[in-house]
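Need residues for this backbone.
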């Protein structure tokens, strides 16, 4: 297998997910993949569902669980 630039993702806090459900880990890995240099990402829930082979409802549940574990924080993109 040949690796090319841009095919690796840094995964902070991965040790905090040891023993957690695989879907929770998959959602977090996808979020890390989308994160930019400021550690922010804003993929659509539908995109994450397609990437992980799950439902939008599952994505929302996983994001809330990652927030509860203090692995993830959530903020809006748009100012009122």
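Answer:
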């Amino acid at each position: 297998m040949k690796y090319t630039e841009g095919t690796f993702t840094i995964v902070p806090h991965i040790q905090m997910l040891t023993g957690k459900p695989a879907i929770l880990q998959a959602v977090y890995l996808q979020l890390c993949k989308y994160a930019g240099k400021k550690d922010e990402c804003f993929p659509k829930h539908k995109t994450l569902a397609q990437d992980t082979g799950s439902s939008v409802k599952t994505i929302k549940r996983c994001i809330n669980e990652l927030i509860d574990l203090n692995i993830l924080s959530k903020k809006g993109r748009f100012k009122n």
